[in-house]
Amino acid sequence: MIKYLIFDMDGTLIDSSLIISNSINYVRKKIGLNPLPKKVIIEAVNDPYLDKPKFFYNSNEYNKEQIEWFREYYTKNHQNEVMLFTGIKELLDEIKDYFRLSLATNAYRASAFEILKHLKIDGYFEIIVCADEVAHPKPAPDMILKIINYFNCKKQEIILIGDGRTDEEAANAAGIGFIKVNWGFSDYKEAIKSVDELKKTLLKLRFTK
Questions:
Q1: What is the pLDDT of residue 209?
Q2: I want to staple 19 with a disulfide (CB 3.0 to 4.6 A). Which of 37, 50, 79, 81 is the partner?
Q3: CA angle 41, 42, 44 (to 5 degrees)
Q4: What is the mean pLDDT of residues 168-173?
Q5: Residues near 47 by beta carbon (within 8 Å), at least 6 away in sequence
Q6: What's the average model confidence in pLDDT over 112-127?
Q7: Which part of the chain has CATH 3.40.50.1000?
Q8: Region 150-168: what's the mean pLDDT?
Q9: Cβ atoms within 10 Å, residue 95
């Protein structure tokens, strides 16, 4: 029986493609680089094998200025450039009495909480684990294992719901189940294609012994 759920944030609960691409291009402009198309940025963000600092900023790692510039744009513009996917609030309302909910995101904590509080969904999750709170973000299993330790649950009792290869590899590395959704940043043939379909799938899992 599944008792615990881990949600990815970007591309699963929220459509943050515009704010992410605009924030990255804001940093690129600051360091003298030309903007990248939104589609290129979002595909790169979801590629677990890509050296992202090198790809986005021609850097060996994200430096302090790049992080601050990204957060500067993100903080100033997230209220206008981020939204919940249709039906997500209703989904969380529907399932909250049947599962204990958590969230694992590769966003930094400050940015993630700005978004979650603005969209009024932060209160649904007992634990939220962000990229700057573990040694290795997804696709490493660190976030998932931290949540499992928090709930003190068995791996067969918890699943991750996400939209990308990064999420799937994190679930596999942690040894838990994975549900792939297909309304966010990716385009998979074998995935759940609507929030309503996800709701039905989760409620069936809840009552399977």
A1: 47
A2: 81
A3: 65
A4: 96
A5: 165
A6: 95
A7: 4-15+83-206
A8: 94
A9: 17
The domain 4-15+83-206 belongs to what CATH superfamily? HAD superfamily/HAD-like (3.40.50.1000)
- Asked if residues 184 and 85 have their Cβ atoms less than 8 Å apart, the reply is yes
What pLDDT does 186 receive? 61
Q: What is the pLDDT of residues 177-199, one digit of tens each?
A: 999 998 866 667 789 999 999 99
* Kind of pairing between the strands at 177-180 and 158-162: parallel
Return residue ranges of the chain for CATH 1.10.150. 17-81
Identify the CATH number of the domain defined by range 17-81: 1.10.150
What does pTM read for this prediction?
0.88
Structure tokens at 155: 């791996």
- Cα 62 to Cα 5: distance, rounded to the nearest angstrom: 31
